[in-house]
From TrEMBL:
Gene3D superfamilies: 3.10.310.50. It comes from Nitrosomonas stercoris. InterPro entries: TPM_dom. It comes from the Bacteria. This is TPM domain-containing protein.
């Protein structure tokens, strides 16, 4: 059990999310996702969570495990070509994970996602949350463009472009 991590999670609340992601930043992220999705047929979802609750902390849930749970909870897997991507930020840990559905995951090496996460986490350490997420959206857009060109008809998945605050 990591006492420092538990303390960080207990002291990081929704106010921290609002400071890191004010309304203008959330709008910029939503617009970046919408713009990205005009260039490919994939779906990008960004979700931020202030902190884990105590039960998850006591079970030592990793950020990766939580990101996979959120991927399922938000139904990011529910796309026609299995090409949804979740960018998940756990603010208390300043840790980000990218979870890609099986259609895109089979095409892109894990190192690509890890590099994008490292870049975002570096920006977060400098308190540059908007720049970090926008860079992450750009990083996941490139493989989506390569493997999933845009459809000529409108998308039907209905996944939101608006950032999800958990």
């Amino acid at each position: 059990m990591n006492i420092a991590r538990i303390f960080r999670h207990l002291t990081t609340g929704q106010a921290a999310v609002k400071r890191a992601f004010p309304a203008a930043t959330l709008i910029a992220i939503e617009q970046a996702i919408a713009q990205s999705e005009t260039t490919h047929s994939g779906e990008i979802v960004f979700a931020v969570e202030a902190a884990l609750d105590m039960s998850l902390l006591l079970h030592n849930q990793s950020v990766r495990e939580r990101a996979i749970d959120v991927f399922s909870l938000l139904r990011v897997w529910d796309t026609e070509q299995n090409n949804g991507i979740l960018i998940y930020l756990l603010l208390a840990d300043h840790n980000v994970e990218i979870v890609a559905d099986r259609g895109i995951h089979s095409q892109v090496k894990q190192a690509v996602w890890e590099s994008a996460c490292d870049s975002m986490e570096d920006a977060f350490r400098r308190e540059q949350f908007e720049a970090g997420i926008l860079a992450g959206i750009h990083a996941v857009t490139l493989p989506l463009q390569q493997f999933f060109p845009p459809k000529t008809i409108s998308k039907t998945s209905g996944l939101p472009d608006k950032p999800v605050i958990l």
